[in-house]
Design goal:
The complex is a heterodimer of chains A (431) and B (673).
Chain A lengths: L7 E7 L3 E2 L9 H14 L10 E5 L10 H8 L8 E4 L5 H15 L4 E9 L5 E2 L2 H12 L3 H9 L9 E2 H5 L9 H12 L3 H20 L10 E2 L5 E2 L11 H5 L21 E10 L1 H7 L5 E10 L8 H13 L8 E4 L4 H12 L1 H8 L26 H19 L3 E8 L3 E8 L4
Chain B lengths: L6 E5 L3 E6 L11 H13 L7 E6 L20 H19 L5 E5 L3 E2 L1 H8 L2 E5 L6 E2 L13 H9 L1 H10 L2 E2 L1 H7 L4 E3 L4 H11 L16 H16 L8 H13 L3 H16 L2 H19 L10 E5 L3 H12 L3 E5 L3 H19 L2 H10 E3 L11 E4 L5 H14 L5 E4 L6 H4 L9 E6 L8 E6 L5 H13 L3 E6 L6 H17 L4 H11 L5 H8 L1 H11 L7 H8 L14 E2 L2 E2 L13 H19 L5 H12 L8 H8 L1 H15 L7 H7 L1
Parallel strand pairs in B: 2-3, 3-4, 4-6, 5-7, 6-9, 10-11, 10-13, 11-12, 13-14, 14-15, 16-17
Antiparallel strand pairs in B: 1-2, 7-8, 15-16, 18-19
Helix pairs in contact in B: 1-2, 2-10, 3-4, 4-5, 5-9, 8-9, 9-10, 11-24, 12-13, 13-14, 18-20, 18-21, 18-23, 19-23, 21-22, 23-27
The chains are: A alpha+beta (431), B alpha/beta (673).
């Protein structure tokens, strides 16, 4: 449980999550942050300059977005004297921003913080190979025609092969597994089959579709506009026509040709941003703010990078233990859907006496997690997973589900490429 | 050395710096006294030979904004004018022939005489602040440069670029001035002094245009070019209305082969121009504009940072983009997110065209916020309603705004036809409501009518005017009444054109009569541009002098609404009316009178009704709001110049011939008395 001063969630907002279509999308990561942040700030009873700091998670800002948190903060009018910074913990960067903000508030270093995550995966860079960059260097240094001629002779066709930044980012730099392969390993370990993964994915789309139709995202998703006169008001990754039959036809993309993980049961490459506004009681009193939720606890965990998808198990279990809670005692769960197989793997791990004993040091299995208390309105598979943003999105959404159902306690947790897990326990203020 | 009132002389070991700080003026102007002081300073320098001479301003962020236009009116005779020009020329010649390098250090507006002074120096260093303007805008007050600037500018940048600036009066930002060639170094403020020393030390060759310009030392080449230039100018201004650009082309054509001759010819030509009615009237218009600007500068300091605009139609969007361009944070709300999407796109196009630099465009877009939820109203300093012209919609908006906006926020409507008194009925404090009536296109039309309803507080009017001033528009206070001032005056003029159309007169003929008088746009084109449905609507609410012309109703019924539908009185192609070159329909000799007198008569009526509080305000509003021939000095000035009684006689004649719509307003007699 958090030590220090209580940390309240005041408000939050996100952009629609926009599926990448193979070319750079209409918004860069910082544009998304500004687009989600301005309407959020505009509806507060304080001025943007009253913020003590701005913290933004982002995995891969572009070269023109150095310290993207500061760029977003200045563009949103938070003022030159409001410090802002950027955090990265791969897929949990958005959650890291919340945790950093919560830490500062708990410690009394800050009272009012805007924190969140943003990612424009469609803007991931395409790079020159290191060999080609080295050649360019020698070319610019060569002065005489002879030097230049010599330099030209060194140029090889392979130099021109581009390096796709996105693929590099989705490959573990240490073990060399692609993220999909880590899920193949988990599926193998727990004996998951293709059909259960595909069924999970279809349900993700069905739940998102129903939530959109019910207007559940009003008050969470802001309409944003691009310079070409388009507006975006809902998540575009939704496939209403998704079905087991259709998903069954897709080929595995990671362990070819026999694997289980397909594009259909993986999270989508997406652009998006989510912000939350966190405050201490002092700031709430000063500005007349209402606390909608409390960040009660958070935890980071390290796991085997080749099974990074099990991270949520290792991050949320210690929180449960500290509060002496069972899986059922948490009213609602958001487990980020990086892959259907990875979420199912987490559930299987909690249900496995062997895993709980060997890996978590428990005496027995933790038990079953009620599927009707998990990812009620879709997840990364349908909504998309803009890596830096998802960690903030699931916390915001978990809070809104608690409010809607008048539930008390929610866990938001996610796996992190490189072999980590992150979890955050959110509570509604009592009384 | 003697002390001077307007100049400071400072010697550093090797350099001499002359700082101009005209006493009693906010901005430096080259009055006769200032120039003669400079002359005496130069006398003193004959014995004293510094390594370099720097001319700069002693006022922060400024240079010299021109000659002292206030002195123009005091010039009574040709000899006096010629004497002034000769003396100024002599001073400029002396600076030019100084043995040491001379540098003008420009860190503020450098216009007219100011640039002429800078051009007399060997080098010019300009601060890179983009808001600085440089140019020779003399044609805008009916003259051309008279301190040798026309000769020196053309010498420095060539005929094409030089004449373009001289004839249009266009001003440039520092970077553009550097590219054009009359600024040697364009540097950040911190490098100004070092840049001047650098030039004095290095003594690079003076800026000169391409050698191809040598061709114009031959008369036939000049004549050909002069013909081209005259043709270009005639598309914008008629010689009988605006003689200055033509005079400039003439003097260049005749004497450009010989520098001294051209310098001498410039003195004579500017002397003739300064005494013309056109120049006097344009100077009058300049001061009328200054007067309006003053009403936008309140005594107490007003802070306007955030504006909330309701209604993302064309006007709402354009007002919002203009405010964002001027540095305010704008929340634009509309019930339709689709309308906001269009607005966002339009604003982007506007900023891109205006600001060009991607970073600046992005900053402006961040200030232009499409506000789906309408939350911006709570923090706005000014709320502007630009929703549909529908009383229910507007009262709904203001009932809500009074609840959520700050109690000290300006509550303004951009309505053009709904009385403020109707809208303000829903307010608990109806005096808060004021009209801020912008004209289309917002970025081009400087005038904003500040409309005072029966109940409007004086404070609301003053704050609205201050807001208009803050966003660089010209506020003119008018009383609430159908059409307010500008539309009310334009309406009879446009309706008379429709009467003429009904009589079978060709639209081109009607428009030509109006442009021949000096109007920027003929009334038929104007009606088509505004939209015939809007004309009909406004005409009905105004109830102007009898029934509306039948031709208007039939056009509206046929759905031919003008430019926006591609067909009105003209057929429109690519935003331009297709004007047939026919002279069909006969001008019975009073075409121009019929149009102009209905316009003038309505002006008098507005004065009579007190819609606007003084003839000079009316003149300013008409020139800046309708483009009424600026060289006339404005409608009431024109009437006075022509003689009120003579004008009234002509109006009586029209009344006799064409009936009630020409019945003279009581305002005529009042202005006589």
């Amino acid at each position: 449980m958090h030590k220090g001063r209580p940390v309240y969630i005041i408000d939050g907002a996100r952009t629609p999550f926009l599926k990448a279509t193979g070319k750079p999308g209409p918004f860069r990561a910082v544009d998304l942050a500004v687009a989600a942040g301005l309407p959020l700030l505009n509806r507060q009873p304080f001025a943007a300059t009253d913020l003590d700091e701005v913290i933004l998670g982002c995995v891969a800002p572009t070269a023109e977005e150095a310290n993207i948190g500061r760029v977003a903060s200045l563009r949103m009018g938070c003022g030159e004297s409001t410090p802002a910074w950027t955090v990265a913990r791969n897929c949990a960067s958005g959650m890291q921003a919340l945790d950093s903000a919560a830490t500062h508030i708990a410690l009394g270093r800050s009272d009012l913080v805007l924190a969140g995550g943003t990612e424009s995966m469609s803007h991931a860079p395409v790079l020159f190979s290191t060999e080609f960059v080295a050649w360019l260097g020698s070319w610019t240094r060569s002065r005489s025609m002879a030097d230049k001629a010599r330099s030209l002779k060194m140029l090889k066709p392979s130099h021109f092969k581009p390096v796709i930044g996105l693929l590099q980012g989705l490959t573990d730099p240490v073990c060399g597994f692609s993220m999909g392969q880590t899920t193949e390993k988990i599926a193998h370990r727990f004996g998951l089959d293709r059909e259960s993964m595909d069924r999970f994915s279809v349900r993700s789309h069905e739940r998102l579709g129903a939530a959109i139709d019910n207007g559940f995202f009003n008050g969470e998703v802001e309409t944003i506009f691009d310079i070409r006169g388009h507006r975006y008001f809902e998540d575009t990754g939704l496939r209403r026509d998704s079905s087991i039959e259709k998903l069954a036809k897709l080929r595995p993309v990671f362990d070819r040709p026999t694997g289980l993980v397909t594009a259909g049961n993986s999270a989508q490459i997406t652009d998006g941003c989510a912000w939350l506004l966190l405050a201490s009681e002092k700031a709430m009193g000063k500005f007349g703010l209402q606390g909608r939720g409390l960040i009660a606890d958070s935890q980071w965990a390290g796991v085997d990078p080749t099974q990074m998808g099990l991270g949520p198990v290792h991050a949320s279990t210690p929180i449960l233990q500290r509060a002496a809670l069972g899986l059922d005692d948490v009213d609602y769960w958001e487990i980020n859907e990086a892959f259907a197989g990875q979420v199912l793997g987490c559930l299987a791990a909690w249900g496995s006496r062997e895993y709980c004993r060997d890996e978590l040091g428990l005496e027995d299995a933790l038990g079953e997690l009620d599927p009707d208390r998990l990812n009620l309105h879709g997840g990364g598979i349908s909504i998309g997973h803009p890596v830096g943003a998802s960690g903030a999105r699931i916390v915001l959404h978990a809070l809104r589900v608690l409010e809607h159902h008048q539930w008390n306690r929610a866990m938001a947790t996610l796996c992190i490429g490189g072999g980590q897990g992150g979890a955050m326990l959110v509570q509604r203020p009592s009384g | 050395m003697a002390r001077f009132r307007h100049w400071q002389i400072r010697h550093s070991p090797s350099l001499c710096t002359l700082s101009i700080d005209v006493s009693g003026k906010k901005q430096n102007v080259l009055s006769v006294e200032v120039i003669s002081e400079l002359d005496r300073i130069l006398d003193g320098m004959d014995n004293d030979r510094p390594a370099g001479l720097i001319i700069r301003s002693g006022k922060p962020d400024s240079f010299v904004s021109g000659a002292d236009i206030g002195e123009f009116g005091k010039i009574t005779g040709r000899e006096q004018a010629l004497d002034i020009a000769r003396r100024a020329h002599r001073v400029m010649d002396r600076i030019e022939s100084m043995p040491m390098p001379t540098v003008a250090l420009i860190d503020g507006h450098c216009l007219g005489g100011g640039l002429e002074l800078a051009l007399a120096c060997d080098y010019r260093v300009c601060c890179d602040t983009p808001s600085i303007r440089l140019g020779l805008p003399e044609v805008k007050v009916g003259i051309h440069p008279g301190f040798g600037g026309s000769v020196r500018l053309i010498e420095t940048v060539g005929v094409t670029a030089g004449m373009d600036l001289l004839l249009s009066g266009r001003t440039l930002a520092p970077l553009a001035a550097k590219k054009t060639g009359f600024i040697d170094l364009c540097v950040p403020p911190r490098q100004m002094d070092r840049a001047a020393r650098h030039l004095i030390g290095q003594k690079p060759p003076r800026a000169r245009p391409s050698r191809l310009n040598a061709v114009f030392s031959v008369r036939p080449a000049r004549s050909l070019m002069a013909r081209i230039l005259r043709k270009k100018v005639s598309a914008k201004a008629r010689q009988n209305h605006y003689p200055a650009p033509y005079a400039l082309i003439d003097l260049w054509e005749k004497s450009a082969g010989n520098r001294d001759a051209m310098l001498a010819a410039e003195q004579v030509s500017v002397t003739d121009l300064i005494l013309t009615a056109t120049s006097r009237n344009l100077v009058r218009v300049f001061f009328l504009q200054e007067e309006l600007k003053k009403t936008g500068r309140p005594a107490t300091r007003e802070e306007f940072r955030r504006v909330h605009i309701i209604g993302a139609g064309l006007m709402g969007t354009d007002i919002a983009s203009w405010c964002a361009l001027r540095g305010l944070t704008v929340t634009l709300h509309d019930r339709s997110p689709a309308a906001l999407a269009k607005a966002y796109q339009r604003a982007y196009g506007f900023f891109r065209d205006r600001l060009k630099q991607p970073r600046q465009v992005e900053r402006a877009m961040d200030r232009f916020q499409a506000d789906v939820a309408g939350t911006g109203a709570r923090y706005a300093d000014v709320v502007i309603e630009a929703a549909f012209e529908n009383a229910e919609v507007k009262t709904g908006v203001f009932a809500e705004m009074e609840k959520i906006a700050r109690p000290d926020a300006v509550l303004a409507t951009n309505t053009s036809s709904i009385p403020l008194e109707t809208i303000s009925t829903v307010l608990r404090r109806p005096g808060r409501l004021v009209g801020l009536h912008f004209f289309n296109p917002v970025a081009k039309m400087q005038l904003v009518e500040i409309v005072r309803g029966e109940k409007t507080y004086a404070k609301s009017v003053a704050r609205a005017a201050a807001f208009a001033g803050k966003i660089n528009r010209l506020p003119v206070q008018v009383q609430s009444g159908p059409g307010f001032l500008v539309n009310r005056v334009l309406m009879p003029y446009a309706l008379e054109a429709m009467e003429l159309l009904g009589e079978g007169v060709a639209p081109t003929l009607i428009d030509r009569a109006a442009t021949g008088f000096g109007m920027p746009m003929g009334p038929v084109t104007l009606a088509d541009t505004v939209g015939l449905d809007i004309c009909h609507h406004v005409g009905e609410t105004l109830g102007a002098g009898g029934p509306l012309p039948a031709i208007l109703k039939s056009k509206v019924d046929a759905g031919e609404l003008g430019r926006k539908t591609g067909k009105g009185f003209y057929t429109w192609k690519k935003g331009k009316p297709v004007k047939e070159k026919t002279d069909s329909g006969q001008d019975r000799g009073d075409l121009e009178d019929r149009l102009i007198f209905r316009y003038l008569n309505e002006c008098m009526e507005c004065l009579h009704l007190g819609i606007v509080d003084s003839p000079s305000r009316l003149d300013a509003a008409m020139v800046f709001g309708t483009g009424f021939a600026p060289f006339t000095g404005g409608p009431t000035h024109y009437i006075r110049e022509q003689g009120v009684e003579a004008m009234l006689d002509r109006l009586h004649g029209l009344h006799h011939r064409y009936g009630e719509r020409f019945r003279p307003s009581k305002g005529w007699l009042e202005s006589l008395g």
